[in-house]
Amino acid sequence: MQIVVPDQSIGQLSDAWRHCVGTGRLDLALRRDYQESLALVQREIGFRYIRGHGLLSDGMGVHRPYEYAGERRVRHAFTYVDQVVDAYLELGIAPFLELGFMPSGLASGDDTVFWWKGNITPPRDEKEWADLVRAVLRHLIERYGLDQVRKWPIEVWNEPNLQPFWSADQDAYHRLYEVTSLAVKEVDAELQVGGPSLAPGYQDEWIQRFAAFVESRDLPIDFVSRHAYSSGPEQQVPFGTHQTLMPASALLEQFHAPRRQLAGTKLADLPVHITEFNSSYRPDNPIHDTAFHAAYLAPVLAGGGDVADSFSYWTFSDVFEEVGIPTAPFHGGFGLLTHRQIKKPTYHLYAFMADMGDQVLARGEDHLVTRHGDGRVTVLAWAPADPTGREPVDGHTVRLSLPIGAPGAHGSAFARRRSVSEDAGNSWAAWCEMGRPLAPSNRQLDALREAAEPGRSHRSVPVAGGRADVDLVLGRNEVTLLELTPVVDETPEWWDGGRLFGLGAEASDGTEASGNPV
C-alpha cells in the first residue's frame, strides 16, 4: 500500500538522539586513536555532550592526599582533566559530568569494578568528598567560564542499584546524593545536578523511594537519569558474550518508564536523560558490530525523542577497556567505530539521522520522512529486524508518495540514496570473510574501511502535480537514506545526447558536420 505523505509538517524532529554520546573512562581521551575517532564522529554526526566514567578515579589523578607537618592534606590536581576537557571542546563537544568513581585515597573500602578497577565504595569522609566535588567544579568554572559550565549536566554516580557499581545500599546512595547535590549548588545555584543513573531491571520502588527522599529533604535536582538495555542472560564464550534480545520497543518503554514511575511526585516534570543505552550491556557482544544492529535501533532513534529528553548511545568508539584490552578489531565492542576508525553499520544509522531535515512530514513503523528548509525531502527507511534470529526479511518495500517542490509542480527530482545492509556498508561481514584476522595488515585495514562505506546510488525521479512516487525495496537488515532535491533544469537548448560521440547530427550553423571544432 502506498503511503501519501502530507505536504504540511506535523512537527519538529527531536534531536534527543544526538544530545549525548557515551565513552570509555575519561583518561582514554588522552590517546591518539580516541581523539581521531571522536574527531570523525563529530565531523559526520556531531553530538553535543559526552559522558563517561572515571572523572574522579585514580586514572585522572584529581584527588591527591599527602602528609605534611604531621597532618593529612589533599591537593586537587587537574593535569589530565584539563587535557581531556580541552580536547572535547576543541572538537565541539562538552562533558556530561558523571561524579565517580571513588578515589582510592578517599574510599571506605577496596571493592572495585572493571579491569581498570574503579572503586565503588562510599567516601569514608563526606566532608572531603564534598570538598573534592566543589574543587572540581570551581576549577572548571575558572578555566572555562561560569556560563559554559552551567550548561554541563552533572550526574551523581553510576548505576547505584547494582552491587557491581555501588557496594553500599540505597540509603547510602541517598546520602551520597544529598552531600553531592548540596556541594554542587554551593558552588553555583544554576549548575545542573541530577540522578540516580539507574541500571535497567530496577523495581518502581527504587526510583520512587529516591524521589520521596529528595522531596522530604528538599534537595536540589534538575534532571532524572537512567539507563536502557534490551539484552537477556549472558552466554559466555572465550573473548565474547552472546545474549537474547527483546524487541527494540523495549528500549522505548524503558526510556518512558521514569515519567510513569514518577507521576504525581515533584520530580514528574523534570527532564529525563537516558545516559546510557544500547542493545547489549556487554562490551564483547558481536551483535553490536552487525548490520542487524543498525536496523534494530533505527525505530529507537526515530522515535526516542518522543519519550525522553535525551538518550545517549553507549559508546562512540571501541577504545574502551572495561573487560580488558580488546584482542581483535571486531570484538563486540559498544562503539560506533572500531579501533582505527572502521565504521560499523550503526555508525551510518547515526550519520543518516544527522542528514535528516528538521520538519517531520510523516513517520511509521518502518520509515521517517522529513523536509529541510531548502525544500529537500529526506526519507529514513529500515527493514524489520527480528531479534529471534530468524532469516532476515529480504525485499521489504516502503511505498511513498512524497511532496516535492511547489504544489502542482511538474519536472523531476534528483534522488540520492545511501544504504547499509547485510550486503553493503557491512565492515563486520568483510572482516568475517577475511577469516577474522586478529591484527589486520594495512592492506586489510584499507579493505575494511572500503567495505564500511554505505552503498550509494542516484537517479532522476519524475515529479507530477508536486509529487514523486518512490518504492524503496530494502535488502536484508537494510537501513537506507533517500534524499530528493527538486531539479532546476539548466540544460542548454543546444544539448543533444545523440551527438555525444559526434555522430549523425548537423552542426548548429546548418553546415555538414566535418569532424572539425564548430
UniProtKB/TrEMBL annotation:
Task: List, alphabetically, the SUPFAM superfamilies matched.
Answer: (Trans)glycosidases (SSF51445), Glycosyl hydrolase domain (SSF51011)
Keywords, sorted A to Z: Glycosidase, Hydrolase
Cross-referenced InterPro entries: GH, GH39_cat, Glyco_hydro_39, Glycosyl_Hydrolase_39
Q: Which Pfam families match?
A: Glyco_hydro_39
Q: Which domain of life is it from?
A: Bacteria
Q: Where is the Glycosyl hydrolases family 39 N-terminal catalytic domain?
A: 5-465
Keyword Magnesium among record annotations? no
Q: Which family does it belong to?
A: Belongs to the glycosyl hydrolase 39 family.
The name this protein carries in UniProt is: Xylan 1,4-beta-xylosidase
The organism named in the record is Streptacidiphilus monticola
